[in-house]
Amino acid sequence: SEGLFTYDPGFVSTASCESEITYIDGAKGVLLHRGYPIDQLANECDYLDVCYLLLYGELPSSDQKATFEHAIMHHTMVHEQLHQFFKGFRRDSHPMAIMVGVVGALSAFYHDSLDISNDRHREVAAHRLISKMPTLAAMAYKYSIGQPFAYPRNDLSYGGNFLHMMFSTPAEEYKVNPVLARAMDKIFTLHADHEQNASTSTVRLAGSSGANPFACIAAGIAALWGPAHGGANEAVLNMLEEIGDEANIEEYIARAKDKDDPFRLMGFGHRVYKNYDPRAKVMKATCDEVLSELGVQDDPLLKIAMRLEKIALEDEYFVEKKLYPNVDFYSGIIFKAIGIPTDMFTVLFAVGRTPGWIAHWKEMISGPYRIGRPRQLYKGYDQRDVSGD
Ligand code: SDX
């Protein structure tokens, strides 16, 4: 009760939800997907194992995995008419703007044949989104650099196929480095789901009106774009480049602590984690693997990042406010080392997060649900009369 009015019991049902998919303990830095710790899943499984787990609740048997992998990897092409959508964008459009548009446009290619009350239709929609997100992401990149789209290949892993579509050209096939392909796979896993974050809550709210899954995922992509959420990985790289030299770190730490300065230390802090983000630990190890594989372990930005992390973790402001590196702190350094441009980083977050978004959508509409209707704390005028009386 807030004095003005008492919250109706329905408020809680619209402001929170029940789910069996992911558990987070922010104080202890614990992240479980269907009960499995994220570090085990990232290090001992592959991304399609995790997609299956999020969707169906169990890790796949070898037969189930073979069937699932075939279904995903043999639907990675998009309708040729979808290629036309890209031509309507300026070449310098942000790839997230393109993704919001073309993923929403998938509705036009599946909408009529999709009955979301049908379990099999829901499953096919989930599969098609997981199949096609990497293809659309790579197409957004190719369009921005004026190169022809590279068609997917069925003989490559999920991560390897993405790198192929990003970097192969008709003049030269990209040779997929298995270490980089495995790193992409791990990074997609580390982004796969994260409970009721802003973008997943957006997908659930959109889905609660009965909107089709492609439109719901487009809404999730839009929410993810913000620099406080998925846009942070791009913001981390921009911040490290702005810091430019280890000698400038103290100045930026001071700015991050200054309440009158809007500057925040990108890649630090979290709405839920008040401990180390367990994903950041795996991401850091993956970063070391990739940079050493590419022989760039002396990358100046990595040096700034490592020093920034050390200083921040010892600084009493950050310690008192429990601000630790989050999932976005290292991913951008890996992407940059692989040759992925900064404005594609959040697109890769969206690719990785797709199974989480669609698993939450599927979980919600597979049982009884009501339209989400968050309430408010009204702070406006009491009723008054236009006559001024
Ligand atoms: C993601 O929700 C999810 O699960 C998201 C995500 C996912 O997988 O979906 O984990 C992905 O979005 C990770 C977060 C990426 N964003 C960033 O790295 C941007 C930088 N971080 C901040 O913008 C901030 O930490 C947020 C947005 C992440 C959280 O904001 P909050 O909830 O306001 O932070 P908080 O409550 O923990 O803040 C406590 C205090 C505040 O100061 P006071 O108001 O108490 O004086 O710490 C301050 C904040 O001002 N603070 C920071 C800071 N983050 C919080 N100060 C300096 N630098 C920062 N990065």
Could you walk me through the main structural features you see in this protein, from its secondary elements to its overall organization?
The chain is mostly helical. It has 18 helices and 3 strands. A 3-stranded antiparallel β-sheet has the order 1-2-3. Helix 10 packs across helix 18 and helix 12 packs across helix 17 (328-338). The structure holds s-citryldethia Coenzyme A (SDX). The site of s-citryldethia Coenzyme A has 20 residues, from loops. One of its GO terms (cellular component) is cytoplasm.
Short structural description:
The protein is built from 18 helices and three strands.
| Computed structural class | mainly alpha
Helix content: 55-70%
Ranges where pLDDT stays below 50 over 5 or more residues in a row are 1-15
In this entry the ligands are: s-citryldethia Coenzyme A
The total of helices stands at 18
Estimate the mean pLDDT confidence. 92
In what range is the share of β-strand residues?
Answer: under 5%
Protein name: Citrate synthase
Pathway: Carbohydrate metabolism; tricarboxylic acid cycle; isocitrate from oxaloacetate: step 1/2
Active site: 270, 328
GO molecular function: citrate synthase activity
